[in-house]
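Sorry to interrupt, but I need a hand with the structure work. Go ahead and set the record down below:
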Amino acid sequence: MVKVIATQRGYFGGEIRDLGASFDVPDDLWKDKDRRPSWAKLDPRHAFGGKGDHDGDGAVGGAKAPEPAAGAAEPVNVPADWRNGSAVERKALAKAISGANVPNAAEADKIITAYVEANAPAPFGDAPAPEAAAGPQGNGVTAALGTAPDWIAPGAQEPSQVD
């Protein structure tokens, strides 16, 4: 028998199961994904022979990537060809990044990839700020002569006398 928890209200085994209700499902029924109740999940307290959730992330089984070590003084130098390294080398690199032992190479790859992506420089982050173009705008006449008024106020321009 598998111990499960209802994730929503449902009917199983002749009873209506409310949200959060814990109940047993036969092993053969639980193994068949089409026949088992889709609204139930494995109870992590009873998984792994009663040892429960291994890493405390609320999910049953597996291991989540460890958080980076608090107060890591200096950044880790990750070589560009780190993917070509052996499993032992990648696990050692992941341990240097996270500060914890890594169970396998796949988890090590996840840790290294996340570290590389988090520390990648922003694209065009070092580009200079755009500057205004120097020189005349348009064809240069306005810059050379100044802006001509659209109209002249009455009396503003006195006729000049020719001698």
Notes: The first strand starts at residue 2 and ends at 6. The mean pLDDT is 77. The beta strands are 2-6, 10-12, 15-17, 22-25, 40-42. Helices lie at 27-31, 47-50, 87-98, 105-118, 141-145.
